[in-house]
Specification:
The structure is a homodimer of 290-residue chains.
Chain A lengths: L6 H5 L37 H6 L7 H10 L4 E3 L4 E3 L7 E7 L2 E6 L5 E7 L4 E2 L12 E4 L3 E7 H10 L1 H27 L2 H17 L9 E3 L4 H8 L3 H13 L3 E4 L2 E4 L2 H8 L19
Helix pairs in contact in A: 4-5, 6-8, 6-9, 7-8
The structure holds a DNA duplex (30 and 30 nucleotides).
Chain lengths: 290, 290
DNA sequence: CGATTATTTGAAAGGTGTCAAGATAGGTGG
DNA sequence: CCACCTATCTTGACACCTTTCAAATAATCG
């Protein structure tokens, strides 16, 4: 009876085989857009986002589910901008993000900041830190968020008790690294409009997996243009102009910290987005693996 | 009697506290250069590079050493350019690089390539792939290299038998991810001369840890200018001009696929290189942790 | 030695950054 | 409900870093 519904897990595979079109400058040429498939984004179900996320990779039995649910107990709400981990922190906890959003970042002595990644509901972090040494980067909240702080000791205990859960978390960590690699490719090799488009596509896929994307293809994305700049390695002025181009192409609406992707297929074509690195079998450009 | 010498492990901490200098344009202003400390790079000792690398993080007992040495048995030599893993590969082995060098990369449909990282002697890869899904990137050899191909099954067996070794390998993997993050910062936020300088500094530190750097601060770096371009997200033409600037500043000599860093401190200052992300306690800008 | 690959150089175009100012929006207090 | 304040977004002009394209030179390899 602890079982949760997993609508996205079941529905997502049906969203597949979007194709690349050469006429990237003709937004109308591509269909069906994601808007035409409302059943894919059946709204956020009240499920535990951690379970929702990890069940992308495996199936848990009731005991495991119970353990994971217990993990989500006693959450706390922190304000936007709250720093969960910085380079002076001694890492004694892992964090589970239940609601809201967070980001990893690094700052240069010159003051330049690079966003290294975003954390979405259901993300458990950070198993990537070695308790024996200091964090090499920081993590802060993008908006008011609900977070569970879990002592590492307790986490270790749970993982040794449930190797199946440990395996799922390892896979989740591998996925994080795969995202990091894709970002390197994105920042290193794509131009401004592609960088931004690619980021938007990625966030939509990731958020859809945890039920954060509405039926009309819109979702909360509490980033300002400076954040986007530090995410893509561009300046905020150039981000502004790039967003105008994307709006002009009829691909997105971004306001009130909410992004509507009006034509996912076209946006993905612009970005050269190929979602298989997200282990979403369904977003592999025209080919469904397995 | 299986014990190996670990000269670098002992010597490196003495290389410390290089400082930032503001007068970046005056190469002569900085001393002592790394050349003045030959004892740091006492030449490649014949030790097993895997053990050399992992003993940065821990100490092994004789049994563990024996197991690791056994792992290095039956190496094979592959030619330059040989592809060890690509996106069509089914991952059934991990690889241990004993001699030579390799690189991870990703290619866009447009043909643009991004180098994601370099593998040096002593690197064991890739625990980062999930056997259940396809690799999201490829790995190829940079030059003729000696590699051991280890069945995943055998590796798993060894790791479950020696949890201490598993822990060390996990830390090594965490370090790889930390390097990846630093690369994102590098490509996203630094200019051309800093990107190249930073890459050189990182390679020198990493290679010095496995005894690949000579007493005069020079080491094999079998990359051409196109590789450097795809590493830094620049074009090969611009790399060429950037290298000329670095040569003009008297910071490096790069020819015959070999790099000599003439003044490490100065190069690090140019790059804003801060080595603590490499878990080299000694390269933390002026401050030795712990 | 020829043939290929890699490096170097120049000129020109273009993408992106910089600087500065004005407009808009969201929040706060009266 | 309005006035104000601050953060954010928008816009323009200009500089410059980096790319592109082309060609010449040098290095490497069989």
């Amino acid at each position: 009876m602890l079982r949760y519904t997993h609508s996205l897990n079941i529905d997502l595979p049906t969203l597949c085989e979007f194709e690349l079109h050469e006429d990237v400058d003709q937004p109308s040429a591509i269909s069906p857009s994601i808007r035409d498939r409302p059943f894919l984004f059946a709204g956020a179900c009240p499920a535990n986002p951690l379970i929702m996320r990890l069940e992308q990779f495996t199936r848990f039995d009731n005991q495991e589910i119970a353990a994971l649910v217990a993990l989500s107990a006693s959450p706390r709400i922190y304000p936007s901008g709250h720093i969960l981990i910085n380079d002076c922190t001694c890492v004694e906890h892992v964090f589970l993000l239940l609601e809201g959003m967070a980001y990893r970042y690094k700052i240069l002595p010159s003051g330049k900041r690079q966003i290294l990644g975003y954390l979405v509901p259901g993300d458990l972090f950070d198993l990537q830190f070695d308790p024996a040494s200091r964090p090499d980067h920081s993590i802060a909240l993008l908006c008011k968020s609900t977070v569970v702080k879990i002592p590492i000791r307790r986490m270790d205990h749970l993982l040794s008790q449930f190797p199946h859960v440990e395996r799922a978390l390892t896979v989740a960590t591998l996925l994080d690294v795969a995202i990091l690699r894709e970002w390197l490719l994105n920042i290193g090799q794509r131009n401004a409009i592609q960088k931004v488009s690619h980021f938007f596509c990625e966030m939509m896929v990731r958020l859809s997996k945890v039920g954060q994307v509405d039926a009309d293809g819109s979702f909360d994305l509490p980033v300002n243009q400076m954040m986007l700049a530090d995410t893509t390695g561009l300046t905020s002025v150039h981000i502004n102009r790039t967003l105008q181009r994307l709006r002009g192409l009829g691909l997105i609406i971004l306001k009130h910290r909410r992004l509507s992707i009006l034509n996912f297929n076209h946006l993905a074509a612009v970005a050269d987005f190929e979602g298989s690195y997200l282990r979403c079998r369904t977003f592999a450009r025209g080919v469904a693996y397995d």
